[in-house]
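[Meeting: bench + compute handoff]

Bench side (C.D.) handed over the final construct sequence. Compute side (W.E.) agreed to return the predicted structure before the next meeting so the bench team could plan truncations. Sequence as handed over:
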Amino acid sequence: MYFIHGFFMTESGIFVAMAFDRYVAICDPLRHATILTNRFVTMISLAVLLRGCIIVLPCILLASQRPYCRTNIIPNTHCEHMAVVKLACADIRVSSYYALLVVFGVTGLDVVFITVSYTQILRAILRLPTKDNRLKTFGTCGSHLCTILAFYSPRLFSFLTHQFGQNVPLHVHVLISNMYLMVPPLLNPIIYGVSTKQIRSRLPRLFNQNRP
């Protein structure tokens, strides 16, 4: 449970850092090297990693203090926080409230920061003089936006169904929770591969070579 949710929070922080990098590169390109120095990037990386490690700890500690007297079989394919906590024979409101705080207070702020960054980026793109420049600049951010949607959408839907979807069938919970674990890693190589010119030019030749 710790590693599943810790990696999620870390990846969410990485998306915020990437959005900031895109913002500086497009809105203030002449100062990109002076702002994003190696020292600054290292500090951001450590902050993102520590945040992911620390924020998830209370969830684990709260879950470990609950008595589990019914069953030790989790109705899921992995140790999702709410799926585990719901097996407890005790009041789980504190765990539920903290999970809400993390999702809307931390992940929600990440989404807000990403949205603000890309709003400024879009404004800068629309001010570019030629259509070709606008399309080229937007193309550098399109893969990042697609990855963000693939990352956040299944996770948010899974959390909301666990919190408020009491009448949602169990197999739907399992399907959605598996989607937020599997969909982003499956889509990321495709999204970034399609946006890379060298890979696009290489794929047709690769398929032609494999033909009998």
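W.E. noted at the follow-up: The helical segments are 2-27, 32-35, 38-64, 81-85, 93-126, 131-164, 170-194, 197-210. C.D. will use this when planning the next construct.
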